[in-house]
Amino acid sequence: MKYLAALAGLAGFILLPHFIGEYYVEIMILFMINLILASSFRLITTVGDWSLSHIVFMGVGAYTTALLAKYLGWPFWGTVLIGGMASAAVGLAVVFPLLRTKGFGFFIGSFALGEFIRLIWVKFHFPFGGPRGMIGIPSIELGDIDFYEATPYYYLVFIFTVLCQVVLYRIDLSRTGRVLKAIYADEDLSKCIGINVARYRAMAFSVSAFFAGIAGVLLAHRLGAIDPKNFDVNTMVYLVIWVVVGGVGTFWGPIIGVAIMMVIGEAARPLAEWRPLLFGGILIVFLTLLPGGLENLILRFKEMLEKLRSAGESQPAE
Amino acid sequence: MAILEVRNLSKRFGGLMAVQGLVLDVEEGEIRGVIGPNGAGKTTFFNVVSGVYKATSGTITFDGTRTSNLSPDKIAALGVVRTFQRVALFPNFTVLENVNMGRHLHARESLFAAVFGGQRQKESENLQKSRDIVDFLGMAAHRDELASNLPYGLQRTLNVAIALATEPRLLMLDEPVAGMNPTETQEMTRIIRRIRDELGITVMLVEHDMRTVMNLCDKITVIDFGEKLAEGLPHEIQSNKEVIEAYLGAEDIVA
Ligand SMILES: Nc1ncnc2c1ncn2[C@@H]1O[C@H](COP(=O)(O)OP(=O)(O)OP(=O)(O)O)[C@@H](O)[C@H]1O
Ligand SMILES: [Mg+2]
Questions:
Q1: Could you state, in order of their start, the residue ranges of all structural domains in chain B?
Q2: What is the reported pLDDT for B10?
Q3: How far is the CA of A138 from the centre of ligand 2 (A)?
Q4: Fewest CB within 10 A of the end CB: N or C in chain B?
């Protein structure tokens, strides 16, 4: 049943570009890139750390691929891996001082360090292009396929999204994933049964930066141009809204969050400059009234249904 | 040679000396009781030995290795594992998952294995060990229950199970029967004795329940105001004047 649903979902994604206009194919490309971003962000939150720098690691991947492709002419297949690894490496450097902090301190500290990286892009005109960023990032070539077109790019991003999600899902279910949740549940107990908490926090942060980096590579080659503003705190707030709306308790929460919020975002286009107000309102509603996000709501709904069903089943016996 | 050697151990919180100049030897295979009035510094002592707090001064040596400057996970890896005075478990995990988390030191899963699942053999061994421990503690019927749904007494038992899963050489229990009813207390007492007798694990326990302490312990150390007040066999402690005075009005020490 589960496999069938997954299969149907995959088939839907594969067929989709043939039924929707190019504009929506572009939206779907962004949607899938955002999925990688949100699911990798969740990995950090499972250990209890909330980072405000995740979007910056998307930038590290984007700048890395832009530099390698533009100046060195590297092919996408090389830069995508290097982009992810560069991001993971910077993540490791950033998380090191952050490990001394927790909760709000981590939140603010990660913001400061992320801004520091962004400042490097702003200040160094060579090679990062300063505030105006980098333009003319080559599109991807592979044999006869022109990835400048939306549909081929859609499939490329689709493959990467599936790969990233599968890996993140496997980590979530693995013992390593459970160790992260154990640390979140009780750090002192975790330490006292031999878990190296700092090591696992650093690992979660770095691995999640790796995937953010890959998302950045995919974004850079689609946009063709990037600048430091793409990766600023405004964009980060959207990411936070997605995962707050979806919830981080299960693997599916952030995915639901991205889907719902992108639909709302598109529907609310006519609101123009009032849109941020709407998003802010949604964030506040979820933080105050629906902590745990939509996934929590769905879980509670399921529980209710099950109760109703078992109540219905026990009735004939009377 | 003692398996645990504590020398002139002190822990200060601001102006308060919670542990002061403590000297203590625990022999391999013994069950040691640590008692004292509320606020005497017993839990603080456990926190320092397990590495949760850094000692202000003094040294701790476990089986010849200086542990007083190590982090809790390193100390646990050496075989010194403690439980907490509070209920400390992973509420969203089942009983078996909780105990299996205690197998962390015997799992050592790499990131690669996490993604590609390369350690199935080892993991099924760990699960088997965890099941054995659940059975050993008489919790088989609750194996797949969520830890948060367990009654209090079983949660306390699960705390011990998690610690036991690490395969410690020295198990430190902070008030293992606190809040338990008489039946549960008896059962836990029996378990602790079996941990030492059948598994050969050295046990050090803090406990206010004097009947349990006197029943179980080979030797007892009494702490008051962070300092060692007395040490000796249960019957010696029971008839020690200073000890009785320290406890006067607080509890009836004659079990
Ligand atoms: N983290 C801390 N910061 C400041 N003071 C502390 C801290 N932990 C313990 N104390 C103080 O140290 C003293 C010893 O506390 P501790 O918890 O070790 O006592 P205890 O012997 O375990 O008492 P009980 O039998 O009530 O558990 C107390 O006065 C307590 O208030
Ligand atoms: Mg205590």
A1: 1-79+171-188+204-255, 85-167
A2: 97
A3: 65
A4: N
Q: Are A123 and A130 in contact (CB under 8 A)?
A: yes
Q: Please report the pLDDT score of residue A2 as a whole number.
A: 79
Q: Which of B97, B102, B114 lies closest to A171 in CB terms?
A: B114
Please tell me the predicted confidence (pLDDT) of residue B248: 57
Nearest ligand, measured from the Cα of B41: 1
Q: How many Å lie between the centroid of ligand 1 and the Cα of residue B44? A: 6
Residue ranges of chain B with pLDDT lower than 50?
A: 249, 254-255
Question: Which sign does the torsion angle of CA B35, B40, B45, B47 carry?
Answer: positive
Query: Cβ separation of A186 and B88 shorter than 8 Å?
Result: yes
Q: Which helix (H) or strand (E) holds B164?
A: helix B152-165
- Closest CA relative to residue B89, chosen from B79, B101, B78: B101
Q: What is the ipTM of this complex?
A: 0.94
Nearest-atom number in ligand 1 for the CA of B223 is 21
Strand partners, B230: B222
A174 touches chain B (CB under 8 A): yes
Structure tokens at A234: 């405004």
Give the domain B1-79+171-188+204-255 fold: Rossmann fold (3.40.50)
Q: Give residue A318's pLDDT.
A: 39
**Lookup: tokens for B131:** 């099941």
According to the model, what pLDDT value does residue A269 have?
A: 86
Q: Which residues of B116-136 are buried (b: 16+ CB within 10 A; e: fewer)?
A: eeebeebbeebeebbeebbeb
Instruction: Determine the pLDDT at residue A314.
Output: 62
Q: Decide: residue A93, CB within 10 A, 0-12 exposed, 13-18 middle, 19+ buried.
A: exposed
On chain A, the residues whose CB falls within 8 A of the CB of B149 are none
Q: Residue B105 has what DSSP assignment?
A: G
* Residue ranges lining ligand 1, Cβ < 6 Å: B 13, 16, 18, 36, 38-44, 85
Cα of first residue to Cα of last residue in chain B, in angstroms, is 32
Q: Which chain B residues have any C-beta within 8 angstroms of a chain A C-beta?
A: 50-52, 71-73, 76-77, 81-82, 84, 88-93, 97, 101-102, 104-105, 107, 109, 111, 113-117, 123, 162-163, 165-166
Residues of chain A with pLDDT under 50: 317-318
Pairing of the two strands B80-82 and B170-174:
parallel
Kindly state the percentage of chain A with pLDDT values over 90: 70
- By Cβ distance, the residue of A182, A189, A196 closest to B84 is A189
CB contact under 8 Å between A195 and B104, yes or no, is yes
Which of B44, B54, B93, B104 is the mutation pick for testing A, counting most A CBs within 10 A? Answer: B104
Q: Where are the domains of chain A?
A: 16-231, 233-312
What are A105's two structure tokens?
Answer: 């301190």
Query: Residues B71-98: pLDDT tens digits?
Result: 999 999 999 999 999 999 999 999 999 9
* A205 phi, psi to nearest 5 deg: -65, -45
* pTM of the predicted structure, to 2 decimals: 0.92
